[in-house]
C-alpha cells in the first residue's frame, strides 16, 4: 500500500511521509503492533533519501504514533482508535435564531460571486498589485529585530501600546481632541461596531443611520434586533429634515453615520452640514458613532475634519477607524477612539471574546507607518485611484447618460437609474462577464431596486470603460424591452 504515497514540493518530504502514516494509524488502517517498512526499504520504494525516512519515523515516534525497537524496527504504538459506527446529530434543527438570521443576512453566501475573467466592479477592496511588499517586508524584519520573542507572546486587549500612541497622534492630526479619550485596537470595523453595540444598546432599541448604509453595519444592527431608523440620503449626505423628524418621533439611543466617502453612495458631507447634524443630535442628547471610512482617499478639495472634531473637549462622538479599505485588508486592524470610561468597558468585552488582536500584525503596521512607508504608499495610490475615479465618472456619463451619479472619491461610485431593476441588470451583465453590487442590500428594507454600486479599485484601467459600456448597453436593452 505504501506505493500510494503521493509526494510533491508543497512541503518537506519527511513531513508528508509522517502525515501519511499518522493518518493511516489514526484511521485504524494500521493496527497496534503492526510493523512499518524499514527505513531502507521505504526510501527505495519512494525514491527518497534514507535520512528523510528516518526523520519521518523520528517525528512519528515523538508524537507517540510509533515505537522503534532497536534491531527490530518500527511498530505502530497502542493508539486508541474509535470503531463506533457513527453518531449523527441533525444540526440544522439545533441552530438558534441568531445563527439563522446571520446566514440569511450573509451576502457572501447569497450574492453573485466574482469568477475568473469577470470585470470586478463589485469589489471596493484595495488593489493588491499596489501593495508595497518590499517596504512591508522591511517593516516586518525590523520589528522582529526590535521586539524579538516578545511580539509573538500574548498581548493586551487594548492593543500594542506604540501603535495606540501613534494612532492617537494620527487622530489629533485629523483635528480631534483626544483629551479624556482612549483608543483600543480591534479586528477591523466589523468587530469595533459589534462590540460598541454590545456595550450600548439592547434588543428593541432605536438607532438612527443613513439609508442606504454600509451593509455590514446593517447586518449587525439587524442581528442585534434594533429598530433601525433611516434618514434618506441627499446629494450632500443624510437629509437633516429626515433626521429631525426621526429624533422628534422616536426615542433614539444612538446615531451611526459615515460622513466621508459614504458606503455605498460615496458622498462626502460638507462641513456646514456636519455641524448641523451634530447640533441636531446634541439637542436630543443622542451619542454618535462615526465611521471614518476611506478618509485617506481624498482626491479633490481641502480636508474636511471628522464629526468627532466638532465636539472639542466633549465625549459624545465615538470614532471607528480602519485601514482595511486602503491598506492590507488581511491585517484586519481597526480602532475605536472614545471616552475613557467607555473604552474601559469595550476592553473588557473584547477580552471576553478574543483576548486581543494579533500583536505581530499590530507591531508590523506600527513599524510600517513609523518608517514613513504608509505616507509614501498613500501618495502613490491616491494618484492611481484618482485616475480610475475620473475614468469611471467619464465612462458613466458617456455610456449611462440618464443615470444619477454619486461619489466624491474613495474606491466606488453609486448609480441610480429610474426604470431599471438592478438585480435583473446584474443577471444580464454577469453573462457578459461584468459584476457589480446591486444597491438594495444597502437599504434598510431592501426597498430601492434601481441603484447599484460600482467599485473600481481592482478593475484594470483598460477594463473600466469596457465594463461600464457593457452595463450601459444592457440598460438600453432592458429599457427597449420594457
Task: Draw up the topology in text.
Blueprint (H helix, E strand, L loop, with lengths): L12 H14 L12 H8 L3 H13 L3 E4 L3 E4 L20 H8 L2 H4 L8 E3 L11 H15 L13 H12 L8 E6 L1 H13 L5 E6 L3 H9 L3 E8 L2 E2 L1 H10 L2 E6 L13 H13 L4 E4 L25 E6 L11 E6 H15 L4 H12 L2 H27 L4 E3 L5 E5 L5 H10 L2 E5 L12 E5 L5 H21 L1
Parallel strand pairs: 3-14, 5-6, 5-8, 8-9, 9-10
Antiparallel strand pairs: 1-2, 4-11, 6-7, 10-11, 12-13, 13-15, 14-15
Helix pairs in contact: 1-3, 2-3, 6-13, 8-9, 8-12, 10-11, 14-16, 15-16
Please provide a written account of the structure:
This protein has 482 residues and is an alpha/beta fold. The protein has 3 domains: 75 residues, Winged helix-like DNA-binding domain superfamily/Winged helix DNA-binding domain (Arc Repressor Mutant, subunit A, Orthogonal Bundle); 125 residues, Aspartate Aminotransferase, domain 1; 241 residues, Aspartate Aminotransferase, domain 2, CATH 3.40.640.10. The strands form 3 sheets. It has an 8-stranded mixed sheet with strand order 4-11-10-9-8-5-6-7, sandwiched between helices. Strands 3-14-15-13-12 form a 5-stranded mixed sheet. 39% of the residues are buried. The model has no long low-confidence stretch (mean pLDDT 93).
Amino acid at each position: 500500500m505504501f506505493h500510494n504515497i503521493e509526494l510533491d514540493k508543497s512541503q518537506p518530504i519527511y513531513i508528508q511521509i509522517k502525515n501519511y502514516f499518522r493518518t493511516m494509524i489514526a484511521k485504524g488502517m494500521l493496527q497496534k503492533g503492526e510493523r512499518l517498512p524499514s527505513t531502507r526499504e521505504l526510501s527505495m520504494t519512494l525514491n527518497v533519501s534514507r535520512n528523510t525516512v528516518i526523520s519521518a519515523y523520528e517525528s512519528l515516534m515523538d508524537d507517540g504514533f510509533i515505537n522503534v525497537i532497536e534491531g527490530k524496527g518500527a511498530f505502530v504504538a497502542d493508539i486508541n482508535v474509535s470503531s463506533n459506527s457513527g453518531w449523527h446529530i441533525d444540526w440544522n434543527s439545533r441552530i438558534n435564531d441568531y445563527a439563522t438570521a446571520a446566514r440569511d443576512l450573509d451576502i457572501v453566501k447569497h450574492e453573485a460571486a466574482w469568477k475568473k475573467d469577470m470585470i470586478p466592479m463589485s469589489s471596493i477592496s484595495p488593489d493588491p498589485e499596489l501593495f508595497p511588499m518590499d517596504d512591508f517586508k522591511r517593516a516586518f524584519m525590523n520589528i522582529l529585530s526590535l521586539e524579538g520573542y516578545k511580539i509573538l507572546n500574548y498581548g493586551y486587549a487594548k492593543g500594542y501600546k506604540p501603535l495606540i500612541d501613534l494612532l492617537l497622534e494620527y487622530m489629533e492630526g485629523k483635528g480631534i481632541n483626544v483629551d479624556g479619550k482612549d483608543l483600543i485596537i480591534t479586528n477591523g470595523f466589523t468587530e469595533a461596531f459589534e462590540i460598541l453595540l454590545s456595550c450600548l444598546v439592547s434588543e428593541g432599541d432605536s438607532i438612527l443611520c443613513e439609508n442606504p448604509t454600509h451593509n455590514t453595519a446593517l447586518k449587525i444592527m439587524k442581528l442585534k434586533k434594533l429598530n433601525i431608523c433611516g434618514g434618506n440620503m441627499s446629494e450632500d449626505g443624510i437629509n437633516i429634515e429626515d433626521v429631525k423628524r426621526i429624533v422628534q418621533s422616536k426615542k433614539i439611543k444612538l446615531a451611526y453615520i459615515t460622513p466621508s466617502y459614504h458606503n455605498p453612495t460615496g458622498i462626502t458631507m460638507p462641513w456646514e452640514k456636519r455641524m448641523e447634524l451634530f447640533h441636531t443630535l446634541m439637542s436630543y442628547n443622542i451619542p454618535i458613532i462615526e465611521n471614518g471610512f476611506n478618509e485617506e482617499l481624498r482626491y479633490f478639495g481641502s480636508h474636511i475634519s471628522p464629526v468627532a472634531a466638532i465636539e472639542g473637549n466633549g465625549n459624545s462622538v465615538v470614532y471607528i477607524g480602519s485601514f482595511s479599505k486602503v491598506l492590507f485588508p488581511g491585517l484586519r486592524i481597526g480602532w475605536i477612539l472614545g471616552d475613557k470610561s467607555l473604552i474601559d468597558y469595550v476592553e473588557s468585552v473584547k477580552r471576553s471574546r478574543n483576548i486581543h488582536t494579533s500583536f505581530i500584525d499590530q507591531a508590523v503596521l506600527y513599524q510600517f507607518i513609523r518608517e514613513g512607508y504608509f505616507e509614501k504608499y498613500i501618495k502613490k495610490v491616491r494618484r492611481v485611484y484618482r485616475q480610475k475615479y475620473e475614468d469611471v465618472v467619464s465612462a458613466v456619463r458617456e455610456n449611462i447618460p440618464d443615470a444619477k451619479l454619486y461619489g466624491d472619491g474613495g474606491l466606488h461610485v453609486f448609480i441610480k437609474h429610474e426604470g431599471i431593476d438592478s438585480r435583473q441588470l446584474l443577471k444580464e451583465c454577469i453573462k457578459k462577464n461584468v459584476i457589480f453590487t446591486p444597491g438594495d442590500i444597502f437599504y434598510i428594507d431592501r426597498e430601492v431596486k434601481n441603484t447599484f454600486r460600482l467599485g473600481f479599485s481592482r478593475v484594470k484601467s483598460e477594463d473600466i470603460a469596457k465594463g461600464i459600456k457593457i452595463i450601459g448597453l444592457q440598460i438600453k436593452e432592458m429599457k427597449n424591452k420594457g
